[in-house]
Design brief:
Radius of gyration: 19 Å
Shape: globular
Number of domains: 1
CATH topology: Aconitase, domain 4
Mean pLDDT: 93
Strand content: 15-25%
Low-confidence stretches: none
Structural class: alpha/beta
Order of helices and strands: EEHEHEHEHEEEHHH
Helix content: 25-40%
Number of strands: 8
Oligomer: single chain
Number of helices: 7
Length: about 190
């Protein structure tokens, strides 16, 4: 995974509540185990309506999505995180997330940030100003900085924070203990080798 330390980017506002994983990436596109190529199907059914936020020129290249309550609810589908990342979204900010989505996001390098609803509404207003209103996400300091300089603190599980900062997935985290694992295996009796 790519380490996530700090991101300064335009944000796209998607204030709709209860956006489920089938809206993020419809089931008909889940015929692959590849993590690439899914971005073109991101929010496919919502994009049928002209004017969808990610299709507006001023949100082209947005790397932050400011969403409504309960973002990513619904079925367990890792493809939802993959589709967001493949589209270029690196961080989703919302008042709440579906638990499974949030865990899948963290395991794949997508940062889900929970902020109070009032803070999310302020960030959506900032995002509506387009690329002239850049938002900074600083994972090292655990703050979101609005274009006016206001810093909004957030918390993240310390282990998940470390993994994102260092670009570690679950296997990468295990491999940070490779020397200890090798030492244990060297000391361990190996009756099958006799």
């Amino acid at each position: 995974m790519t380490p996530f330390t700090r991101l300064t980017a335009a944000a796209a506002p998607l204030g709709q509540a209860n956006v489920d994983t089938d809206q993020i990436i419809p089931a008909r596109f889940l015929k692959t185990i590849e993590r690439t190529g899914l971005g073109r199907h991101l929010f496919a059914d919502l994009r049928r309506d002209s004017g969808f936020v990610l299709d507006q020129p001023r949100y082209a290249g947005a790397k932050i999505l400011v969403a409504g309550d309960n973002f990513g609810c619904g079925s367990s589908r890792e493809h939802a995180s993959w589709a967001l990342l493949d589209h270029g979204i690196a961080c989703v900010i919302a008042p709440s997330f579906g638990d499974i989505f949030a865990n899948n996001a963290l395991k794949n390098g997508l940062l889900p940030i929970v902020l109070p609803r009032a803070a999310c509404e302020a960030l959506m207003e900032d995002a509506r100003r387009g690329p002239n209103a850049m938002i900074e996400v600083d994972l090292e300091r655990q703050v979101v900085v609005r274009p006016d300089g206001e810093a909004i603190a957030f918390t993240l599980d310390p282990l998940r924070r470390r993994m994102l900062l260092e670009g570690l997935d679950d296997i990468g985290l295990t491999l940070t203990h490779a020397a200890a694992i090798d030492a244990y295996e060297a000391r361990r009796p190996q009756p099958w080798a006799a």
